[in-house]
């Protein structure tokens, strides 16, 4: 784990303080961020290969994954439909062809990178003690880029405050996810703060897996990654099926990905009126992911 929680916050805050006007610089940062994520996920696979009793640890990873996924999903999906009843959102019934296969392949690529790192680590059978330190240094650079991305995402504080529905959806996801994390922690017999950290990914599987893996080890990191990945994949399936009848539920369950990865699906299936709500909700949750995870890990 990094020497202090402030050391992790510092690059995130510094990045957020940097406004960028030039599109080519933003595109460069986006590209480098994607590459850094792949590098860290590969290192995550290597760290898994270095675990003692790997088969037993894999079983523990899957147990943690499904316990958190089921607990958090149930809490989210019990609360979100009430928003649709109390505060309906109008949608468009025009459906377009969706690039779902391409999106699934993108998610699969990230799983493949972790798997490749695991296989390489097992085959090489070399000292992997350097992996943790390398991951920490790359993580600092990644958080700096994430801060820049959040600052230059196009959302202003005024736009966020004025879209009350997006704020409320994000608040419901926040509260119910943390409740699900507490339930999962009690079921698994692990510290509550670890459960709260695990519940604070909101679908951002790459960053959640990296931060939690750095703070709690490879078992937790692998479980966090898979938990959030399952959330995103379920969201991709649920959005076309639910958004016309339960738009708030579909947008909310997408979590942090509602502002980027699942946004095209939300727009194509629900119409343009759903887009501002999704962007605001997703932006708030994206902002909270590193803040909450690092906070709960520091307790």
TrEMBL record:
<feature type="transmembrane region" description="Helical">
    <location>
        <begin position="275"/>
        <end position="297"/>
    </location>
</feature>
<dbReference type="Pfam" id="PF03956">
    <property type="entry name" value="Lys_export"/>
</dbReference>
<keyword id="KW-0472">Membrane</keyword>
<feature type="transmembrane region" description="Helical">
    <location>
        <begin position="61"/>
        <end position="83"/>
    </location>
</feature>
<dbReference type="InterPro" id="IPR005642">
    <property type="entry name" value="LysO"/>
</dbReference>
<feature type="transmembrane region" description="Helical">
    <location>
        <begin position="233"/>
        <end position="255"/>
    </location>
</feature>
<feature type="transmembrane region" description="Helical">
    <location>
        <begin position="104"/>
        <end position="126"/>
    </location>
</feature>
<feature type="transmembrane region" description="Helical">
    <location>
        <begin position="138"/>
        <end position="154"/>
    </location>
</feature>
<protein>
    <submittedName>
        <fullName>Lysine exporter LysO family protein</fullName>
    </submittedName>
</protein>
<keyword id="KW-0812">Transmembrane</keyword>
<keyword id="KW-1133">Transmembrane helix</keyword>
<feature type="transmembrane region" description="Helical">
    <location>
        <begin position="166"/>
        <end position="190"/>
    </location>
</feature>
<feature type="transmembrane region" description="Helical">
    <location>
        <begin position="36"/>
        <end position="55"/>
    </location>
</feature>
<feature type="transmembrane region" description="Helical">
    <location>
        <begin position="202"/>
        <end position="226"/>
    </location>
</feature>
<feature type="transmembrane region" description="Helical">
    <location>
        <begin position="6"/>
        <end position="24"/>
    </location>
</feature>
